[in-house]
Amino acid sequence: MGHQNETIKLTVAQAIVRYLSAQYIEIDGEKTRVCGGGFGIFGHGNVTCLGEALFNHKDELPLYRGQNEQGMGFAAAAYAKAHLRRRFMFCTASAGPGTANLLTSAALAHANRLPVLMLCGDTFNTRLPDPVLQQLEHFGDPTFGVNDAFKAVSRFWDRITHPAQIIQSLPAALATMLDPADCGPAFIGLPQDVQGWTYDYPVAFFDERVHRIRRQAPDDLEIRDAAELLKSAKRPMIIAGGGVQYSVAVAELTSFAEAHQIPVVETIAGRANLIATHDLNIGPLGVTGSDCANNIAEEADVILAVGTRLQDFTTGSWTAFSKTAKIIGLNVARHDAAKHMSATIVGDAKISLINLDEAMSDYKSPTEWIKNARSERAKWDDYVAQNVSIGNGPASYAQAIGVVNENCSPRDRIVAAAGGLPAEVTANWRTLDVGTVDVEFGFSCMGYEIAGGWGARIAQSETEPNQDTIVFTGDGSYLLMNSDLYSSVLTQKKMIVLVLDNGGFAVINKLQNNTGNESFNNLISDTPTATHQVSVDFETHAKSMGALAETVDSPAGLKDAFARAKVAEQTYVIVMKVDPYEGWTTQGHAWWEVGTPHISESDRVTHAHQDWEATRQRQRKGI
Fold it and tell me: What positions does the domain Thiamine pyrophosphate enzyme central occupy (predicted)?
């Protein structure tokens, strides 16, 4: 500490990189850099200054070259999720369209409460060369630009207009990204001239610092009130969300449920909190859930919601529960804990469950309630076994999921997002080990699958290098964003990618049909402007980017192909056609509110609207 008054002259870009390389985090008693490196595409807005700084720290902060800025953001989000939000990656993009491409991935990280640091080029602070290449001019506000759009999708936002500002801004950005309650993306705009300006920075600013994730203790009175409410329950239920894993509270959740014999259901983000064979795991809840979880949710009188933001697919647009059921929100974020007038426990899940367990004393739920829940789960297991079995109708998502589930390793990581696969994976995947499923449904973002798989694989290679990252994607998402197959080949971060081709956006076509509408503009075959019907050769396309690839014509063939993919040393793509109309999981769906036309020239649409609205009476009105 003898250099408190010493300074060092650095550019803004050099200071940012030097600061990041000195930040560490303690995980399970071991110290590691909190920033695992970054993803970058250089342009005139970030290559000359930030690029120079990153080159000189390329060993401490490895820079992965992206193919698309949006994909970089997805990869960074998946990396953070795989590390349970305890480590993050930065993304750097040039001023203008490069930075604008990060907007969608920033929104994904924001919705999923994931830390991603965005270091993006901006216009010149002096304005002397204005208007510059790729600058958007707002006539009445010269300070307003593309980067201001990130204010809506960032937890922390700043634009550096003087070199000294990063002394305050960088610690504030890190504090936000590592805060359990406020976690999310941080955006720092870097004007092109300011990046190269120098300042005499305090040497102490670059001292090594070890961060720890804060564990907020709950209020004793909230614990007391929640315990009293739970002890009054005849039919209690626990909803386990993604926050259980981020708090590293799976053991405490399991112990709490076992001690008090309370059935546990999982959200989409909370999949893989309990393994499939645990006798208190009553399955996934909600619109993309299971009959077993939804049936007991309808009967539950007190619901403990742990680490979930209770989005509409979890709550069935708030029809999944009895209107008289009492909800206790246990969440480190007050915003999520207090939803729908819940009784609240604002605090860390691990500490809160330990304290709540003590306050519950010897309470156990009635034997008949648990017996009924287990019976419901057994019936659902029988349904899933039939649903995924090969030969059960035409080739389907469910059958592909069943093949992989049966033949993967317990610690392999599963990645899926958007379209029909999140529902099918959530309903049909039988969890083999804790924390092995990443179904991105917070933002339900097409294109996350392959890019997210790459980011997840980078994280996995740091902790479990001998396991595989397995990506499920449809043909629609593949066509939207596939270039990080090439990224995975370049960086030798092997993925196994299943491209399940149903000829378009089949799940939205299904919704279109279910609301009385004709198939239109979703399946390629039903797109009037697609006057030249041609199939995409996904196998050849994947091979052109350096991946190994093959096409199979059945789930039986998929089993053999998957075995070949497992032993391969590089990214392996398996393509299989699935039926767009048949083979969907038909059970396990709670009601979901969608906007339907109140009037239509089509009787089918009108009748579908009436049928949809007729089931609304069970919707809770905010209480």
Answer: 223-354
